[in-house]
Amino acid sequence: MLFAILAFFILTFHKGLPLKCYHYDEQHVNFWIDTKTLPSFPTNYSVVEAKHQCAATIRWFTLSDGKESFVDYRNDVITPMLPENSSLSFVYAGIHRELLTASTRALVYGCAIDYCNNRTNLLKILTSLLLTENFALLDVLFKNGTRNFTDQSSCVEFSNSTHLKCPSSATPLSSCSNCLLLEKESPQELCARCPNEPSLRDDYAQREVVFLFKNRTRLTDEITLACRTKGCNALANVNRIHRLSKIEFDFKNFFA
Hints:
disordered N terminus, 2 domains, 256 residues, two-stranded antiparallel ribbon
C-alpha cells in the first residue's frame, strides 16, 4: 500500500566516500502541497552521512475531514523498483486508491551528490512532475456490499509474469479472498490471479513509476489492482488505470 511506501524502502550500500545529506523528519501541513505551498526549508535540520543516496520525499493523504501532507529530508532510502545496490539518481511517483482513505500519493527524489536533497531541488522536481488521477471511478471494483467474495464466482486467470507478487500457479476460488491484477511495463508482463500475499488482500488500485536521471528515461511503470467484484481483474482494467492516471516527468524543465 502506498501509505507504507517508505516502509518498503531498503537500506543499500556502495563503495566510496559517504555522501552528506540534509536530514529532517516530517514537516506536516493540513493541505496537499504543490509548487506554491511547499514549506520553507527547516532551520533546525541536521547533516547526516549516506552510504548510498540522499532523498527528499513528499506524501499526500486524504482524511475523512480534509487532507494533509508530509515532507521528509532523509538519507539511504531507495525504492525496491530500482536495480539492487543502485546509486542512480531517480524520481519515484506513486498513486494509491482505496475506499477507506480515498486517494494518497507519494514522491521520492533520490540523488547522489552532497546536499542534493534540498528544498530548491525538491521544488524543481514538483515543477517538472505531472501527477493526476481519477481513481474514484475504480471504487465499483472494490468490496461489493455484504456479498461474500465466493458468491461473485470468478477471477480472471492469466499470467506471463515473473513478478514476485504473482502466484506461480492458479489458486482455487474457494481459497481466494479477492482478485489480483498486476502489470509491469518494458517489457509488458501481466498477472491476473488470486493473490497469496496478505498485503494484497485489501482492495486498492495503485500505479508506481520510476524515472532515471542518468539517461532521462522511465525505468518502470507498475500497476496493482486488488479487488473483489466478479471478473474485476480483467486485463482491460490495466488500460483503464492508465487512462485514469498520468505520471510524467519533464527532464528538460528540471535541467533548464
